[in-house]
Amino acid sequence: MLRTRAIAVAALATTALALSTCGSDSLSTGGSTTSAPAGSSAPAPSVDAALAAKLPEKIKSAGKVVIGTDATYQPNEYLDSDGQTVIGMDVDLFDAVMAKFGVKTEWQPSAFDSIILGVQSGKYDVGVSSFTVNAEREQQATMVSYFKAGTQWVTQKGNPKKVDPANACGLNIAVQKGTVQADTDLPARDKACTDAGKPAINALVDGDQAKVTAMVQSGKADAMLVDLPPAIAAVDSTGGTLELLGDQYDSAPYGYVLPKDQTEFGDAIVEALKQLEADGTYQEILAKWKTEGGAISDFAVNPSVG
């Protein structure tokens, strides 16, 4: 079981703000669309003409890249206090990547489990939403690795229900719809429970991570499973009413989601990431969001994963 060092995330927002700005009503319809200059949060990296030449024709002619994202996943991608502008670590980093290509970014909030389909259909040019790279997703799309994180359990402060991740049988466990935690991790744990003749795990699934977090805070859920960066952000942003349980596990790369046939564009994105790492921009952006522990240097198209 591979583990990475803990990623410390500074306090970002109150629960009320997270719920009011990341509500599923505004996201499920894709009604909130944000367009901003690439790299707008920092001086834009210089354009690389060789990379720009490798842009897909649709993006090149439009002068912008349309990105599908689930803006409920603080600190990686979430809505700012205006309820419309998508901000976060993923946003700053991909803005910087696209600045190397000389195109603007247009971030479109979406339900997490519809983003890959949106990329496949052409609704989005790219999906950027803390997607863990796995074999199933690599069958559906081209993925470019840029970060690494694992799964973390979160409970109410003091773990009042005495949750044991190794034996969560019969408990109410919250997860976000369409995630590795919902589709792979929790079902495997539930099967182990029922195979042993123990009570099944009651999975509480919601498409909005802010609502998943709220279920734990209110006591509706005994615990939740989520990637480490948003787990730490949840603890920080809820006034210490939540706590991490144990260590993160199953650390794996995050990947940008591209159409299946765009491996050349993927190779160009890898080169842009290498340039950002070489000039310090990559590290600077991760440091801004206190996510340095997830840094990688082996950026790759469709990396080999277990």
Task: Provide the CATH superfamily of the largest domain.
Answer: Periplasmic binding protein-like II
Q: Helices and strands: which structural class?
A: alpha/beta
Intertermini distance: 11 Å
Order of helices and strands: HHEHHEEEEHEHEHEEHEHEHEHH
CATH architecture of the largest domain: 3-Layer(aba) Sandwich
Shape: elongated
- Our Rg estimate from Cα atoms comes to 19 Å
Main pleated-sheet profile: 5 strands, mixed
What's the total count of β strands? 12
Low-confidence runs (pLDDT<50, min 5 residues)?
1-41
Descriptive tags:
D-Maltodextrin-Binding Protein, domain 2; alpha/beta; five-stranded mixed beta sheet; 35% helix; 306 residues; four-stranded mixed beta sheet; disordered N terminus; 2 domains
Summarize the structure.
This protein has 306 residues and is of the alpha/beta class. The protein has twelve helices and twelve strands. A hairpin with a 3-residue loop joins strand 3 and strand 4.
Write the topology of this structure.
Blueprint: H1 15-21, H2 24-28, E1 34-36, H3 49-52, H4 57-62, E2 64-69, E3 72-73, E4 77-79, E5 86-87, H5 89-101, E6 104-109, H6 115-121, E7 126-127, H7 135-140, E8 142-156, E9 172-176, H8 180-195, E10 202-206, H9 209-218, E11 223-227, H10 228-237, E12 242-258, H11 263-278, H12 281-288
Parallel strand pairs: 2-6, 2-7, 9-10, 9-11
Antiparallel strand pairs: 1-6, 3-4, 4-5, 8-11, 8-12
Helix pairs in contact: 5-11, 5-12
